[in-house]
Design goal:
This protein has 101 residues and is mostly helical. The chain is 88% helix and 0% strand.
Amino acid sequence: MFHDSIVLLYAITVGFTTSGIAASVYGLICGNKKDKFGRTVYLGSMVIAGPLVLFERAAQARRDKSWPGVAVFLATLVAGYWSFAIGLFVLDIALTLAKAR
């Protein structure tokens, strides 16, 4: 039971870290392009960078008191689950590459 909880937290952490890296790389490469290509790259990168963006917006809305606490809680849950899914995918790739050696 304890091992499963550690794997769960590790997968969420890996997913959230991957999300942050993807958001930073997108910001460095594309910036604020408003053309069709920039919009396509933005939407594609949000598949990976989405949890960080969602969590940042929820935190900002909470500081501004524009969202109720329940909405912030739900956004945090969605970001956590999304990070978990990304983390499992990244860990699966890492384990596959480790077995290939």
